Amino acid sequence: MDGGALDRSEDGRLTVGLRLWQLGTLAPRTESLRTFAQPFMEDLYSALHQHVQLAIREGTDAVVIERLSAPEALGLVSHVGGLLPLNCSGVGKVLLSHAGPGFVDTFLADGLRGYTPRTIVDPAVLRRELAACRRTGTAVVRGELTADADSVATRIVDGDGWVVAAMSVVVRAGSLKPQAALPTLVASGLGLSRTLGWHPEVRVQGG
Fold this sequence. Notes:
Blueprint: E1 6-8, E2 14-16, H1 18-48, E3 51-58, E4 61-68, E5 83-85, H2 90-97, H3 101-109, H4 123-136, E6 138-142, E7 149-157, E8 163-172, H5 178-195
Antiparallel strand pairs: 1-2, 3-4, 3-8, 4-5, 6-7, 7-8
Helix pairs in contact: 1-5, 2-4
């Protein structure tokens, strides 16, 4: 059925769909994260009136675990429980850049899929972007996953310095300069990270 929450078998019975199953398997380690993130996401939404989403890395994908959206906001390919590519989404690039060099090497060796003409498919170019993302903790993506969508994302760090999630704001291309949303987004990311126990003296891991 729509959204992947339930599947209907040939005899008409409903069973748990892939997306609902994914959320269920992730629930033990994401429930508290979603709870802590909620006020920060609500503040971002109130300030920007754009899509605000929270994602974690699961294997070679980013999984959206929470999202707030305005009714009139740009339609997106993602939804709660859905998957986003690591190489060309804002949250994906943040998570990929902090996944460690071994993982990045393996990921790039498997080839990069292009979703739009602006998707970066050259591993060397993406490596440079990932290096910048590790330095700043942020990523800006313009029309790489969906031609009419731009996004800016920031990392969420726990008390041990591990990047456990990424938070992003997604806007219609040209409607809002991503850099305009960056200070508010970064402030929210730092606030959530502090809630999870991080403080500036803790070195960010995974770079």
